[in-house]
Amino acid sequence: MADPYSTLGVSRGASEAEIKKAYRKLAKELHPDRNKDNPKAAERFSQVTNAYDLLTDKDKRARFDRGEIDADGNPTSPFGFGAGGGGTRSGGFRPGGAQFDFGGEAADIGDIFEGLFGQRQQQGGGGFSSGFGFNRGPKPKGANVAYRLQVPFVDAAALKPQRITLGDGSTIDLKLPAGVESGTQMRLAGKGQPGPGGNGDAIVTIEVQPHRFFTRDGDDVRLDLPVRLAEAVLGGKVRAPTVDGAVNLTIAKGSSSGKVLRLKGKGFHKKGGGRGDQLVTLMIDLPADDAALAQFVESWPGRDQGNPRSRLGV
Fold first, then answer.
1. For tag attachment on the chain, is the N or C end more exposed, with fewer CB atoms within 10 Å?
2. Among 220, 223, 280, 222, which Cα is nearest to 249's?
């Protein structure tokens, strides 16, 4: 095949737009539908199309310009023996494999060069790789290994380090990231399967376990806190659990069930820094079958005052 630039009639520095313009002009002139009685036009149309395909492929064009492939896209001979196209000549090189023809008998010299030069014995421009001047690319790493790690709710909120045992029996203390949640993945470089290009990685998927009385709301932690009737009516201090340990919580006089108190910075660590809060909902716990309480309410003058359900429209 002729030089693709000459085939399209463009210079080597032609832009992609110039190449497309030249191709459209020639393709219109040489299209087989317009040259049914001219077989040479069909052949020329095929050459123009092949040239266009090569020059509009950025990788192939660059390789052609560097002399790595010929106009047909075949690798050029690394030692100048000139075995382009399909056939071979005596002493010629076959681009498809490391073979030479000596008097009609093919000899595979790949192993010979491998022994002589080894793996990348010569560096720099045109250096040997794999013993015969072709780069085989980076060696593949080993496979990644997947792990699933269950983390207690409180540990996830407080970012307590977690110990994990790997497949080889070794243990690692993981530092949980801020914003950790179920589905968060952590990558341990080089802790996977071995391979020619090094070890793969270990991929650890976090699963935050549910808690028996804490629940998560974004970066906040919610808690329903039972309180006695007297504590709600008279107010006072009560102990309340948090992910960082128990604290004293002040309840105002006359607090009702459903009132929410906020404990700043007692939630999950945020990705952008800081922490969420703990939202404590008071739940008045009435004693069952308390005769004295029942008698008090029956005689209490204000028992029928107001309608707490009025905001519900009933």
1. C
2. 280
Domains detected in the chain: 4-117 (1.10.287.110), 145-208 (2.60.260.20), 214-304 (2.60.260.20)
Neighbour-count burial of 163, counting CB atoms closer than 10 A to its CB (0-12 exposed, 13-18 middle, 19+ buried)? exposed
pLDDT band at 10; cut points 50, 70, 90: very high
pLDDT digits (tens, 9 = 90+) for 59-100: 999 998 988 888 888 887 655 444 444 443 334 444 444 444
User: Helix, strand, or coil here: 206?
Assistant: strand
Nearest to 178 by CA among 166, 169, 186, 170: 186
The tens digit of pLDDT for each residue in 238-250 reads: 999 999 999 999 9
Q: How far is CA 230 from CA 123, 233, 297, in A?
A: 86, 5, 13
Distance, CA of 52 to CA of 46 (rounded, Å) = 10
Report yes or no: 288 and 273 within 8 Å, Cβ to Cβ.
no
Residue 12: CA count within 13 A, CB half-sphere: 5
